[in-house]
Write the structure tokens for this entry.
Amino acid sequence: MLILLTAATLAFAAKHPVASRPAEAPPFNALLYALDLLLPVVDCGQQNAFHTAGWQQWLSAVLVAAGWILATTIAAGLTRTLSRR
């Protein structure tokens, strides 16, 4: 997860996504944007304020999918651990 977060932060810092509504958008933060994509439950307010295009759109989709897979894996591990006790 840390590798994905670091790679995404560097990628989004190199080329910022375009603001959906420039007048209302918060200042762009590459780390918060990457966290917003990677963590399915957390809302940092960046994902809806900015939109990607091209290769960054594919990176965003991979981050969202990886976030859901990681969250599901952690939840399954926790429920299995708790059910043993």
Notes: The mean pLDDT is 89. Residues 2-84 form one domain. The chain has one domain: 2-84.
